[in-house]
Every structure is written in structure tokens, then in C-alpha cells.
Amino acid sequence: MDIHRLSGAVTLYVAQPHVAVVTIDRPSARNAVNGAVTAGLERAILDTESSNEIWVTVLTGAGTQAFCAGADLKEVTMGKMNSLMTVEGGFAGFVHAQRVKPWIAAVNGAAVAGGFEIALACDMIVASEDARFGLPEVKRGLVAAAGGLYRLPRVLPRQVAMEFIATGETVEARRAYELGFVNRIAAAGMAVETALLLASSICGNAPIAVRESLNVARQALDLTDRELRALSERAQDRIMLTEDFQEGPRAFIEKRAPRWAGR
Q1: Which of 48, 122, 255, 260 to pair with 98, CA 20 to 30 A apart?
Q2: SS3 23
Q3: Please, what sign has the CA dihedral across residues 206, 212, 213, 217?
Q4: Whether 68 contacts 38, CB under 8 Å
Q5: Across the chain, how many H-helices and E-strands are there?
């Protein structure tokens, strides 16, 4: 396994065909976001988005105690808050970054504060049975300004989201799964392995079709039906120009698995 260190605190390796695993590697600090994490995640997005071979990325944190505990408060108190942000990506260089390919958060342990917001910025979440999630900012006189305040109400019933935001309390993995914002539950310490199974299922589909479909779905709550219909039609027009558009029906007729080219 060839592990690439993208910064002092983020690594990337190809775990299986077309699937990269990006790891926030600061377990002694509960994988809290500092300048090195921000630089590494920004680089990870650039590398995976530009690679023709990577179709899905799994994002996780080193160790079993925490996926990510949010901002490193040592850097915040030292006046280094700007090092935790990028112009394009926002917090951790990630939460507002434009991404075309699907990302899966594989959560072991705690995903709280900015760490939860990073997970919410992914397309899917796999959680180990001992994982927990929360936005405790209000307990410290802060607000969850990295997307949590609007992404959480999009994936939860309104009243439930309001309770979590106003109380700052955490929710356990099983309850998160029941509420619908966690896709799959894994055994303790097995979130990455379970996320890789999900990634493999995604990679069985035409990668461009997946990207075009997610592009529409990600905007489903922001645009009108008319706008979304036009967006879907343009996506279909682009898909019809690809090799994979021909390969899918051909494979079905020939009763074989499709061989996706990604173009």
C-alpha cells in the first residue's frame, strides 16, 4: 500500500480500484484541524478531483477515538484562525470546496463541532457503532459557522435538528442511523472497511453518470423544480456524448458486467 503524505497531518492512499482513502492523521490531538490538516485536505481534493483513476474518496481520521474534534483551539487562541481556512474551501479547506466526485465520511469515535461539519459536507456517512456526533459550539458561546447550522436541518426533521443545535448535545451512531443522516453502521473500528464496501458499490456504476446525478441531487433543496429539471436535462445531454452511455446498454444486451471507461 503506497501511502502519500499530503501534509504533516493528512495522508492519501488508493485502497482498491478507483477508491482513495484520505486520513486526517493527528490522533494525539483527536484529529483536530490545524494549518497542516487544512493544507492537506485542500491538496486531497485537488489530487482526487484531477485524477482519472479515482472515482470515490473515503475520508476518515486516524485512530478510534475521533474522526475529528473540530478546530485546534491552540491555534485559535494563538491567533492562527486564518490557517484553518482557505478562500475556496472554507474551514479545513473542505466544507465549502467544490467537488464533483462522491466523498464518504468514515467516522470512528467523535465527530463534533467542525469535525461534524466536515462529515456533513461529505455526500454519505458511515459510522462505527461507537461513533457520536454533535455541534457543541453553543456550549462555548460560539456558532457552528462551517455549514452545520444549515446542513443539519437538511438531513434531519426540523425539530430534531433545532434541538441538537440549541442544546449542543451529542447523538450516538445508532440514533443517527435511525434518523437517517448516517448511511451505514459498522462494528467498532471498522468504519473505513464498511465505507470501502459502499464505495465499491458506487464504483460498479458509470462514474460520469454518478457525478452528474450527484450534481443535481446536491442542489435539490436550493433550486426550483424548473431549475432542477433544466439541470437534469443538461446532465443527460452531456452523458449522451460519453463512451459509457454506449457501454451500459451494450453490456446489458450482451449479458455481461459493463466495462466503464469514465469518459
Answers
A1: 260
A2: strand
A3: positive
A4: no
A5: 10, 13
Which residues contact residue 172 at a Cβ distance below 8 angstroms, ignoring those fewer than 6 apart?
131, 132
For residue range 51-91, list pLDDT tens digits in order.
Answer: 999 999 999 999 989 999 999 877 666 556 678 889 999 99
Overall residue count recorded for the chain in this entry: 263
- Asked whether the predicted pLDDT for residue 108 surpasses 70, the reply is yes
Cell 479515482 sits on residue: 54
Catalytic sites, residue numbers: 117, 137
Q: What's the CA gap between 7 and 39, in Å, rounded?
A: 7
Largest alpha-carbon pair distance within the chain?
63
Looking only at the bridges linking them, the beta strands covering 66-68 and 124-128 are unpaired
Measured over the CA atoms of residue 153, residue 133, residue 101 and residue 201, the dihedral's sign is negative
Joined together, the cell numbers standing for residue 211 give: 457525478
Per DSSP, helices labelled H in the chain are 35-50, 73-77, 114-121, 148-155, 158-167, 173-179, 191-203, 207-218, 225-239, 243-253
Q: CB–CB of 248/242 below 8 Å?
A: no
